[in-house]
Amino acid sequence: MISAEQLSIFEEKGAVTVDTPLTAQQITAAVTAIDNLLPFKTAEEGQTQRYRYGATCNYYEPALIDLIQHPFFEAVAKRVLHAEAIRFFQTAILATYPQPGEFTYDQHTDIQFSLEDWARTPRRVVCSFFLWLTDVNEKRSPMMHRPGSHRLIAAARSANPALKDTPPAIEGIKMEDLPPAYAAAQPVVAKAGQVTVLTTSVIHGGSKNIDSEPRKALVMTYTSAGIAIGLPQHQATVKRAYDIELRKLLRPERAHLVDFSEADNVLTN
Predict the structure, then answer these.
(1) Where would I find the beta strands (DSSP E) of 75-214?
(2) From CA 238, how far away is CA 88, in angstroms rounded?
(3) Largest CA distance in the chain
(4) Strand partners for 81
(5) CA 213 from chain center: how many Å?
(6) Measured distance CA(194)–CA(8) in Å, rounded
(7) What angle do CA 253, 255, 36 make, to 5 degrees?
(8) Angle 4-13/71-81 helices, nearest 10 degrees?
(9) What is the pLDDT along the chain (269 residues), one digit of tens a residue?
(10) Pairing label, strands 215-224, 186-188
(11) Among 31, 34, 227, 194, which residue's Cα sits nearest to residue 127?
């Protein structure tokens, strides 16, 4: 579970890394699934070599579905979102392979919330889990984030009458398009099997892997039941199709994570 102290760190910094009850076998099975889905491919002559691979809402491997429906993540999301019921939102897999050159990183937000979104019960916020399937050190493509930046962004959004009551929506905004007055970027380091509980309204981004081993992760996001979060039209279409198939694969006692009986909780933007 997540402790009161860890929740406090999440509230203040926007990210906290915690232990999970997952077994070594579950982690190994998930790594094998990602190896099959996102293998490293040597570029053909004349093409640019890729080192970062990802996929979103298009895989149904049992090892990954078992993690998406694991009760631990639902229980933590309930505490983070102050919610009695949780719904699956999106999932992604990531593999970053060793790359020559100097360490660099990206910075952006995926979504922005107002202070009012955070103050609601349940919260009108997305709870994101970055489950680390391999060890992550300061060289192995750590997520870089700016602690507390989500709070400054929320205050600025609340100060804008046109935005403070607008439903939040997934919309990537690069660092250069955000005000500069934030804390310095810090790396997220973790052991395989740990998870970083994150709000992607914190300024964050992936980095280059200058280590000797790949970094692999499973991203899972959840919302409070009945809370509307905006998605670009294409993502909304993909999510609806994925939800239909995902619900068929969930264990009966976990099928409530995808609930078609309630009002659609996805807005298009």
Answers:
(1) 86-96, 108-109, 127-132, 143-145, 173-174, 186-188, 195-198, 204-205
(2) 14
(3) 55
(4) none
(5) 22
(6) 18
(7) 110
(8) 60
(9) 899 999 999 999 999 999 999 999 999 999 999 999 999 999 999 999 999 999 999 999 999 999 999 999 999 999 999 999 999 999 999 999 999 999 999 999 999 999 999 999 999 999 999 999 999 999 999 999 999 999 999 999 999 998 888 999 999 999 888 877 899 999 999 999 999 999 999 999 999 999 999 999 999 999 999 999 999 999 999 999 999 999 999 999 999 999 876 544 555 65
(10) unpaired
(11) 227
Tokens of 234: 């294409």
For residues 127 and 145, what is the distance between their CA atoms, to the nearest angstrom?
Answer: 16
The token pair that represents 213 in the structure block: 């081993």
What tokens does 52 get? Answer: 């970062």
Could you count the other beta carbons within 10 Å of the beta carbon of residue 99? 16
